[in-house]
Prior knowledge:
The structure is a single chain. It is built from 25 helices and 4 strands. The protein has about 500 residues and is mostly helical. Helix 1 crosses helix 2 and helix 9 runs antiparallel to helix 13.
Amino acid sequence: MLPKAENSWTIFEAAHLLNRAGFGGSPSDIRQFHALGRERAVDSLLKPSEALEAFPIPHWATKDQALADVRATIESRIALRVTMREMSPEDAENAKREANKAMQQEARQRELEALSWWFLRMLKTRAPLREKLTLFWHDHFATSIQKVKEPVLLVQQNDLFRKQAFGSFKDLTQAILLDPAMTLYLDTESSKKGHPNENFAREVMELFTLGEGNYSEQDVREAARAFTGYQFNRREGKVYHNTRQWDPGEKTIFGQTGAFAGKDAINLIFQKPQAARFMAKKLWEFFVYEKPSDAALDILTASFLKSDLCVGPLLREIFLSQEFYSESAIRSQVKCPVQFMVQILKQLEISDPPKAFPLAAQQQLGQVLFMPPNVAGWDWGQAWINTNTLFTRYNLAGFITTSSSSNSLIPQDETMNAKGMGPAKRMARSWKGPDYEKIAPRPLREKPADLVDSLVFRFFQSPVPEKARKSFLEYATQKKGAIFTDHETAELCHLMLSTPYYQLT
């Protein structure tokens, strides 16, 4: 077991845990979390009281409605084909085009609803670690709406990640084999006896479980034969194993020979200790810092194996460890765009941001939910920051801290005009900004030093470099005047949020 943290439990450590195991919080959130004590705070994250159903998935993504929609779509297509027989070729083509256009518009609208639903769940949830892990698994088992094209399948996959967030890594990998979104994304349906598709076999070893160097090309080829015959039945909403399309011959995978199917191949993967080491390292790097020592990784791997590859016990050991609260860990990670956006809203105590904000910000910063760039997921760490994205972060901070609008923040993508979104500029104009009477009460504004220190804790949860604090204090002192207005308070907040230091967590 990793050396445990000391008995002392500072409010700054509580904030660090809430930032990493969730999306941060307001000063009052941090104080309440700190009051629990270290072990109870960790346990509250791992065993949240909030029900999974607290934020119901969109109605169209529920099992019964999704199946009803599939049946209705099939019936409408049959009816259209019958009607087209009585049409001229030109009219038939136009009717077909209009039907496809309507389906595409509905899919775009549902995509927007799904994105908004998950973003707001991250913002409002009382189970932040569960949502953070859902984001982790979404990146790990990366699947994109751009190829799958069916929002309902991405939402159902998202629900799978949430339900199994703390559970067995092995069980989740088995579930991914039968996940419709992944089946479509990696073309598993085209993998048939005599013509195996290697996509899933390769990615499940290289990206999902073992990492490069821990399998051979023969292992991939033989496993691909095991993964033949998995097909998605849309009428039932399930992936099933069609044994008529499965290669039943003997395969040799990792030196073992048998008439393996896909489930067997995954079981063979998890007989290799590298699977535990691979995921222990990835979880450590996601929650703590990059490149853990070999000694620490040995301990984590042993703990992970002892828990039968259950993620919850491993995270408990990490969050209670001394190293998690070390100088190497605290404020060492670049916030990913989703973390940046949700955390800034939490810190400004905004529970209902402008509808255009989540999509606009994600598109501008390069992390759109349900749309990772490829099967390897997003690049993390310093890859999030370049000259353009840093400038955009500063602009987004300016938009959300004030009531002014900025055309550069509003994407020109046609999805912004989808039904129900409304004109983005109008929503920007109607944005009133945070409640600064709550964030910076009038009496606090009479004392610039106290105001700055209050806001520094709110946004940074630790002392900032003296040079930075001095610039904040000079601004607050200069602006104090007869009345320190909400507008000036917003400008001070924007100044703090537009620093390189704020990009770290």
